Amino acid sequence: MIKVFVPATSANMGAGFDCLGMALSLYNTVIVDPREEGLILDFPESDLPLVEEGENNLVYRTMKETYKIVGRPMPGLYLRQINGIPITRGLGSSAACIVAGIIAANALMGQPLKKRDIIELATRMDGHPDNVLPALIGGVTVAAMENERVYYVKQMSVDFVRFAVMIPDFPLPTSMARGILPEEISRKDAVYNISRASLMMASLITGKVENLWAASDDRLHQPYRKKFIPHFDDIVAKAKELGAKGMFLSGAGPTMIAILDKDYQRFQYEMDYYTSTFEDKWEVHILEVCRDGAWWEEVEA
Ligand SMILES: Nc1ncnc2c1ncn2[C@@H]1O[C@H](COP(=O)(O)OP(=O)(O)O)[C@@H](O)[C@H]1O
Ligand SMILES: N[C@@H](CCOP(=O)(O)O)C(=O)O
Protein backbone atom coordinates (compact mmCIF):
# COMPACT_ATOMS: atom_id res chain seq x y z
CA MET A 1 0.00 0.00 0.00
CA ILE A 2 1.36 3.44 -0.97
CA LYS A 3 0.53 6.59 0.99
CA VAL A 4 1.20 9.94 -0.71
CA PHE A 5 1.18 13.36 0.95
CA VAL A 6 0.88 16.52 -1.17
CA PRO A 7 0.90 20.14 0.06
CA ALA A 8 -1.50 22.90 -0.93
CA THR A 9 -0.01 25.54 -3.20
CA SER A 10 -0.57 29.21 -3.82
CA ALA A 11 0.14 30.18 -7.43
CA ASN A 12 0.89 33.60 -8.95
CA MET A 13 1.75 35.38 -5.65
CA GLY A 14 0.49 38.64 -7.16
CA ALA A 15 2.16 39.52 -10.43
CA GLY A 16 3.77 36.14 -11.18
CA PHE A 17 0.85 34.80 -13.21
CA ASP A 18 1.47 31.16 -14.25
CA CYS A 19 5.11 31.27 -13.04
CA LEU A 20 5.48 31.98 -9.26
CA GLY A 21 4.13 29.62 -6.62
CA MET A 22 4.71 28.27 -3.13
CA ALA A 23 3.90 25.14 -1.17
CA LEU A 24 1.96 25.63 2.07
CA SER A 25 1.67 23.60 5.28
CA LEU A 26 -1.75 22.07 4.49
CA TYR A 27 -2.01 18.59 2.94
CA ASN A 28 -3.98 16.03 0.95
CA THR A 29 -3.30 12.36 1.61
CA VAL A 30 -3.92 9.62 -0.96
CA ILE A 31 -3.67 5.89 -0.20
CA VAL A 32 -3.54 3.38 -3.05
CA ASP A 33 -3.51 -0.41 -2.97
CA PRO A 34 -3.49 -2.49 -6.17
CA ARG A 35 -6.27 -5.06 -6.62
CA GLU A 36 -6.99 -7.76 -9.20
CA GLU A 37 -9.58 -5.58 -10.92
CA GLY A 38 -12.05 -2.70 -10.59
CA LEU A 39 -11.90 0.54 -8.60
CA ILE A 40 -12.91 1.14 -5.00
CA LEU A 41 -12.93 4.89 -4.40
CA ASP A 42 -13.20 6.16 -0.87
CA PHE A 43 -13.48 9.89 -0.08
CA PRO A 44 -15.60 12.01 2.28
CA GLU A 45 -19.18 12.45 1.08
CA SER A 46 -18.92 16.11 2.07
CA ASP A 47 -16.54 16.62 -0.92
CA LEU A 48 -19.38 15.83 -3.35
CA PRO A 49 -20.26 17.27 -5.86
CA LEU A 50 -16.82 18.94 -6.27
CA VAL A 51 -15.01 15.57 -6.51
CA GLU A 52 -15.90 13.28 -9.42
CA GLU A 53 -16.90 9.73 -8.65
CA GLY A 54 -15.65 6.50 -10.26
CA GLU A 55 -13.16 6.51 -13.12
CA ASN A 56 -13.66 10.26 -13.64
CA ASN A 57 -11.88 10.97 -10.36
CA LEU A 58 -8.85 13.19 -11.05
CA VAL A 59 -6.35 11.13 -9.03
CA TYR A 60 -7.52 7.95 -10.76
CA ARG A 61 -7.48 9.55 -14.23
CA THR A 62 -3.94 10.81 -13.60
CA MET A 63 -2.76 7.37 -12.46
CA LYS A 64 -4.27 5.78 -15.57
CA GLU A 65 -2.56 8.33 -17.83
CA THR A 66 0.78 7.78 -16.04
CA TYR A 67 0.56 4.00 -16.53
CA LYS A 68 -0.28 4.61 -20.21
CA ILE A 69 2.71 6.93 -20.71
CA VAL A 70 5.05 4.39 -19.08
CA GLY A 71 3.45 1.69 -21.23
CA ARG A 72 2.18 -0.64 -18.50
CA PRO A 73 -1.34 -1.97 -17.82
CA MET A 74 -3.15 -0.29 -14.93
CA PRO A 75 -4.13 -2.75 -12.16
CA GLY A 76 -7.42 -2.67 -10.23
CA LEU A 77 -7.24 -0.24 -7.34
CA TYR A 78 -8.39 0.70 -3.86
CA LEU A 79 -8.00 4.52 -3.70
CA ARG A 80 -8.66 6.50 -0.53
CA GLN A 81 -8.50 10.31 -0.33
CA ILE A 82 -8.19 12.45 2.79
CA ASN A 83 -8.70 15.96 1.46
CA GLY A 84 -7.15 18.61 3.70
CA ILE A 85 -6.91 21.11 0.83
CA PRO A 86 -10.21 22.92 0.22
CA ILE A 87 -11.49 22.30 -3.32
CA THR A 88 -11.92 25.08 -5.95
CA ARG A 89 -10.62 27.72 -3.54
CA GLY A 90 -7.34 28.67 -5.29
CA LEU A 91 -5.08 26.46 -3.16
CA GLY A 92 -4.06 24.01 -5.86
CA SER A 93 -6.41 21.13 -5.03
CA SER A 94 -6.48 19.94 -8.66
CA ALA A 95 -2.68 20.19 -8.95
CA ALA A 96 -2.40 18.17 -5.70
CA CYS A 97 -4.52 15.39 -7.28
CA ILE A 98 -2.33 15.35 -10.40
CA VAL A 99 0.85 15.23 -8.31
CA ALA A 100 -0.58 12.51 -6.03
CA GLY A 101 -1.71 10.45 -9.04
CA ILE A 102 1.68 10.57 -10.78
CA ILE A 103 3.63 9.83 -7.59
CA ALA A 104 1.30 6.96 -6.60
CA ALA A 105 1.41 5.35 -10.06
CA ASN A 106 5.19 5.81 -10.29
CA ALA A 107 5.69 4.26 -6.84
CA LEU A 108 3.51 1.24 -7.70
CA MET A 109 5.49 0.72 -10.94
CA GLY A 110 8.89 0.79 -9.17
CA GLN A 111 9.74 4.42 -10.06
CA PRO A 112 10.40 4.35 -13.81
CA LEU A 113 9.88 8.14 -13.95
CA LYS A 114 12.61 10.42 -12.62
CA LYS A 115 12.14 13.85 -11.00
CA ARG A 116 12.38 15.82 -14.25
CA ASP A 117 9.93 13.48 -16.04
CA ILE A 118 7.46 13.92 -13.19
CA ILE A 119 7.76 17.73 -13.20
CA GLU A 120 7.20 17.90 -16.95
CA LEU A 121 4.36 15.39 -16.98
CA ALA A 122 2.57 17.17 -14.11
CA THR A 123 3.02 20.54 -15.84
CA ARG A 124 1.61 19.18 -19.07
CA MET A 125 -1.40 17.75 -17.26
CA ASP A 126 -2.16 20.90 -15.23
CA GLY A 127 -1.35 23.29 -18.09
CA HIS A 128 1.01 25.52 -16.09
CA PRO A 129 3.85 24.86 -13.62
CA ASP A 130 3.04 27.32 -10.81
CA ASN A 131 1.03 24.83 -8.68
CA VAL A 132 2.46 21.42 -9.60
CA LEU A 133 6.11 22.50 -9.24
CA PRO A 134 5.94 23.72 -5.60
CA ALA A 135 3.57 20.81 -4.80
CA LEU A 136 6.31 18.44 -6.02
CA ILE A 137 9.46 20.10 -4.69
CA GLY A 138 8.25 22.50 -1.96
CA GLY A 139 9.47 26.01 -1.19
CA VAL A 140 8.78 29.11 -3.26
CA THR A 141 9.34 28.47 -6.95
CA VAL A 142 9.70 30.37 -10.19
CA ALA A 143 9.34 28.53 -13.48
CA ALA A 144 9.47 29.25 -17.18
CA MET A 145 8.46 26.86 -19.94
CA GLU A 146 10.05 26.37 -23.30
CA ASN A 147 8.07 23.89 -25.35
CA GLU A 148 7.61 21.11 -22.79
CA ARG A 149 10.80 21.83 -20.84
CA VAL A 150 10.39 23.48 -17.42
CA TYR A 151 13.25 25.73 -16.25
CA TYR A 152 12.94 26.52 -12.55
CA VAL A 153 14.50 27.79 -9.34
CA LYS A 154 13.40 26.93 -5.82
CA GLN A 155 13.88 29.17 -2.81
CA MET A 156 13.64 26.87 0.19
CA SER A 157 13.37 29.09 3.18
CA VAL A 158 11.30 32.22 3.74
CA ASP A 159 11.37 31.87 7.51
CA PHE A 160 10.93 35.57 8.19
CA VAL A 161 7.27 35.53 7.11
CA ARG A 162 4.05 33.59 7.66
CA PHE A 163 0.98 33.58 5.46
CA ALA A 164 -2.53 34.42 6.67
CA VAL A 165 -4.67 32.32 4.34
CA MET A 166 -8.25 33.58 4.17
CA ILE A 167 -10.61 31.02 2.66
CA PRO A 168 -14.26 31.81 1.90
CA ASP A 169 -17.00 29.20 1.83
CA PHE A 170 -17.84 29.73 -1.86
CA PRO A 171 -16.03 28.01 -4.77
CA LEU A 172 -14.45 29.68 -7.80
CA PRO A 173 -13.46 27.12 -10.46
CA THR A 174 -10.10 27.98 -12.05
CA SER A 175 -11.53 27.46 -15.56
CA MET A 176 -14.11 30.18 -14.92
CA ALA A 177 -11.55 32.58 -13.37
CA ARG A 178 -9.20 32.06 -16.37
CA GLY A 179 -12.02 32.46 -18.87
CA ILE A 180 -12.63 36.12 -18.03
CA LEU A 181 -9.01 37.28 -18.48
CA PRO A 182 -8.15 39.44 -21.52
CA GLU A 183 -6.17 37.76 -24.30
CA GLU A 184 -3.83 40.76 -24.69
CA ILE A 185 -2.34 43.42 -22.42
CA SER A 186 -0.50 46.68 -23.03
CA ARG A 187 3.30 47.04 -22.84
CA LYS A 188 2.80 49.29 -19.81
CA ASP A 189 0.95 46.53 -17.95
CA ALA A 190 3.50 43.93 -19.05
CA VAL A 191 6.29 46.06 -17.54
CA TYR A 192 4.18 46.58 -14.40
CA ASN A 193 3.92 42.81 -13.91
CA ILE A 194 7.43 41.75 -14.95
CA SER A 195 8.95 44.23 -12.49
CA ARG A 196 6.70 43.16 -9.62
CA ALA A 197 7.04 39.40 -10.13
CA SER A 198 10.84 39.80 -10.16
CA LEU A 199 10.68 42.06 -7.11
CA MET A 200 8.56 39.52 -5.21
CA MET A 201 10.99 36.64 -5.76
CA ALA A 202 14.11 38.74 -5.12
CA SER A 203 12.60 40.28 -1.97
CA LEU A 204 11.61 36.87 -0.57
CA ILE A 205 15.14 35.60 -1.21
CA THR A 206 16.84 38.60 0.41
CA GLY A 207 14.30 39.24 3.20
CA LYS A 208 13.36 42.73 1.96
CA VAL A 209 9.98 42.78 3.63
CA GLU A 210 9.43 46.48 2.87
CA ASN A 211 9.14 45.66 -0.86
CA LEU A 212 6.40 43.07 -0.53
CA TRP A 213 3.33 45.30 -0.66
CA ALA A 214 4.44 46.92 -3.93
CA ALA A 215 5.60 43.52 -5.23
CA SER A 216 2.15 41.97 -4.61
CA ASP A 217 0.26 44.21 -7.00
CA ASP A 218 -0.69 43.02 -10.47
CA ARG A 219 -2.53 44.05 -13.64
CA LEU A 220 -2.86 40.70 -15.37
CA HIS A 221 -5.50 38.84 -13.38
CA GLN A 222 -6.42 40.22 -9.94
CA PRO A 223 -8.30 43.33 -11.21
CA TYR A 224 -10.56 41.04 -13.28
CA ARG A 225 -11.01 38.25 -10.76
CA LYS A 226 -11.74 40.38 -7.73
CA LYS A 227 -15.29 40.98 -8.92
CA PHE A 228 -16.05 37.34 -8.06
CA ILE A 229 -15.06 38.06 -4.45
CA PRO A 230 -17.39 40.25 -2.42
CA HIS A 231 -15.41 42.38 0.09
CA PHE A 232 -12.07 41.88 -1.73
CA ASP A 233 -11.12 45.56 -1.30
CA ASP A 234 -12.38 45.66 2.32
CA ILE A 235 -10.19 42.66 3.20
CA VAL A 236 -7.14 44.21 1.53
CA ALA A 237 -7.68 47.47 3.46
CA LYS A 238 -8.18 45.60 6.75
CA ALA A 239 -5.06 43.49 6.20
CA LYS A 240 -3.02 46.65 5.59
CA GLU A 241 -4.44 48.23 8.75
CA LEU A 242 -3.47 45.08 10.70
CA GLY A 243 0.16 45.34 9.51
CA ALA A 244 0.29 42.91 6.56
CA LYS A 245 3.44 43.34 4.49
CA GLY A 246 1.85 42.18 1.24
CA MET A 247 -1.36 40.69 -0.05
CA PHE A 248 -2.52 38.72 -3.10
CA LEU A 249 -5.15 36.45 -4.49
CA SER A 250 -4.17 32.80 -4.07
CA GLY A 251 -4.08 31.19 -7.51
CA ALA A 252 -7.29 31.99 -9.35
CA GLY A 253 -9.01 32.80 -6.04
CA PRO A 254 -11.24 33.14 -4.12
CA THR A 255 -8.76 32.56 -1.25
CA MET A 256 -6.75 35.67 -0.33
CA ILE A 257 -3.33 35.64 1.33
CA ALA A 258 -1.67 38.28 3.51
CA ILE A 259 2.08 38.16 4.19
CA LEU A 260 2.96 38.77 7.86
CA ASP A 261 6.27 39.21 9.64
CA LYS A 262 4.89 39.41 13.21
CA ASP A 263 1.69 39.43 15.33
CA TYR A 264 0.27 36.42 13.49
CA GLN A 265 -2.22 35.43 16.19
CA ARG A 266 -3.53 38.97 16.55
CA PHE A 267 -3.99 39.21 12.76
CA GLN A 268 -5.86 35.89 12.73
CA TYR A 269 -8.13 36.93 15.60
CA GLU A 270 -8.90 40.41 14.22
CA MET A 271 -9.45 39.23 10.62
CA ASP A 272 -11.67 36.38 11.83
CA TYR A 273 -13.76 38.87 13.75
CA TYR A 274 -13.87 41.35 10.84
CA THR A 275 -14.96 38.77 8.23
CA SER A 276 -17.60 37.32 10.60
CA THR A 277 -19.74 40.37 9.76
CA PHE A 278 -19.89 39.32 6.05
CA GLU A 279 -22.68 37.27 4.54
CA ASP A 280 -20.18 34.61 3.34
CA LYS A 281 -18.29 32.60 5.94
CA TRP A 282 -14.47 33.02 5.92
CA GLU A 283 -11.80 30.94 7.69
CA VAL A 284 -8.39 32.43 8.54
CA HIS A 285 -5.39 30.08 8.90
CA ILE A 286 -1.77 30.99 9.61
CA LEU A 287 0.44 28.77 7.43
CA GLU A 288 4.10 28.57 6.56
CA VAL A 289 6.00 27.43 3.50
CA CYS A 290 6.25 23.64 3.18
CA ARG A 291 9.94 23.21 2.42
CA ASP A 292 10.10 19.76 0.83
CA GLY A 293 6.95 19.22 -1.22
CA ALA A 294 5.17 15.90 -1.81
CA TRP A 295 6.47 12.64 -0.34
CA TRP A 296 5.33 9.03 -0.16
CA GLU A 297 5.83 5.95 1.96
CA GLU A 298 4.98 2.28 1.78
CA VAL A 299 2.60 1.24 4.58
CA GLU A 300 1.15 -2.04 5.83
CA ALA A 301 -2.37 -2.83 4.59
N1 LIG B 1 -9.44 16.18 -3.71
C1 LIG B 1 -9.89 16.06 -4.96
N2 LIG B 1 -10.29 14.87 -5.44
C2 LIG B 1 -10.71 14.72 -6.71
N3 LIG B 1 -10.82 15.73 -7.59
C3 LIG B 1 -10.44 16.95 -7.17
C4 LIG B 1 -9.96 17.18 -5.84
N4 LIG B 1 -9.61 18.47 -5.72
C5 LIG B 1 -9.89 19.03 -6.92
N5 LIG B 1 -10.38 18.13 -7.78
C6 LIG B 1 -10.79 18.36 -9.17
O1 LIG B 1 -10.33 19.65 -9.55
C7 LIG B 1 -11.42 20.56 -9.72
C8 LIG B 1 -11.10 21.89 -9.08
O2 LIG B 1 -10.01 22.42 -9.74
P1 LIG B 1 -9.77 23.99 -9.72
O3 LIG B 1 -11.00 24.69 -10.18
O4 LIG B 1 -8.50 24.22 -10.45
O5 LIG B 1 -9.62 24.33 -8.18
P2 LIG B 1 -8.31 24.54 -7.28
O6 LIG B 1 -8.05 26.00 -7.31
O7 LIG B 1 -8.73 24.08 -5.92
O8 LIG B 1 -7.22 23.70 -7.88
C9 LIG B 1 -12.60 19.86 -9.03
O9 LIG B 1 -13.84 20.27 -9.57
C10 LIG B 1 -12.30 18.40 -9.29
O10 LIG B 1 -12.63 18.06 -10.62
N1 LIG C 1 -1.85 30.48 -12.65
C1 LIG C 1 -3.13 29.84 -12.47
C2 LIG C 1 -3.18 29.26 -11.08
C3 LIG C 1 -4.47 28.57 -10.72
O1 LIG C 1 -4.35 28.10 -9.40
P1 LIG C 1 -5.56 27.43 -8.60
O2 LIG C 1 -5.02 27.04 -7.28
O3 LIG C 1 -6.64 28.47 -8.52
O4 LIG C 1 -6.01 26.25 -9.43
C4 LIG C 1 -4.23 30.90 -12.65
O5 LIG C 1 -4.08 31.97 -12.09
O6 LIG C 1 -5.20 30.62 -13.38
UniProtKB/TrEMBL annotation:
Keywords: Amino-acid biosynthesis, ATP-binding, Cytoplasm, Kinase, Nucleotide-binding, Threonine biosynthesis, Transferase
Uppermost EC category: transferase
GO biological process: threonine biosynthetic process
GHMP kinase C-terminal domain residues: 217-264
Keyword flag Calcium: no
Location in or out of the cell: Cytoplasm
Binding site for ATP: 86-96
Molecular function terms from GO: ATP binding; homoserine kinase activity
Domain GHMP kinase N-terminal, chain residue ranges per copy: 57-139
Catalysed reactions, semicolon-separated: L-homoserine + ATP = O-phospho-L-homoserine + ADP + H(+)
GO cellular component: cytoplasm
SUPFAM superfamilies, per database record: GHMP Kinase, C-terminal domain (SSF55060), Ribosomal protein S5 domain 2-like (SSF54211)
Pathway recorded for this protein: Amino-acid biosynthesis; L-threonine biosynthesis; L-threonine from L-aspartate: step 4/5
Domain of life, source organism: Bacteria
EC number(s) from the headed UniProt entry: 2.7.1.39
Physiological role: Catalyzes the ATP-dependent phosphorylation of L-homoserine to L-homoserine phosphate.
Homology family: Belongs to the GHMP kinase family. Homoserine kinase subfamily.
Protein name: Homoserine kinase
Gene source species: Gehongia tenuis
